[in-house]
């Protein structure tokens, strides 16, 4: 998985539990990568329907509510906007 993780290095510098943990994390990462690849292939080859991505809303924060909740705790530089 990593170039530095040769079997000799791992046996010399890591405990057995660390080696097993490293192996498990590596397998988990490979499973995630394969699931992503299979999903992309399904979309590309078979036209599988994808969930639409969440749209960014154009909502602006409510300044008055924010000021009421945090007004006296906001730190501003001297001469800063109110």
What are the SSEs and their pairings?
Elements: H1 7-13, H2 16-46, H3 63-70
Describe this entry's structure for a reader.
This protein is mainly alpha-helical and 82 residues long. It has one domain. It contains 3 helices and no strands. The radius of gyration is 26 Å and the shape is flat.
Short description:
Residues 54-82 are annotated as: Disordered. With 82 residues, the protein is mostly helical.
Instruction: Report on the biggest sheet.
Output: none
Structural class: mainly alpha
Order of helices and strands: HHH
Q: What fraction strand?
A: under 5%
Core attributes:
mainly alpha
């Amino acid at each position: 998985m990593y170039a530095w993780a040769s079997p000799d290095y791992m046996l010399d510098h890591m405990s057995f539990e660390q080696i097993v943990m490293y192996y498990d994390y590596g397998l988990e990462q490979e499973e995630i990568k394969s699931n992503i690849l299979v999903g992309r292939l399904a979309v590309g080859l078979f036209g599988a329907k994808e969930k639409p991505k969440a749209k960014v809303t154009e909502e602006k924060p409510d300044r008055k509510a924010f000021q009421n909740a945090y007004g006296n705790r906001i730190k501003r530089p001297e001469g800063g906007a109110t």
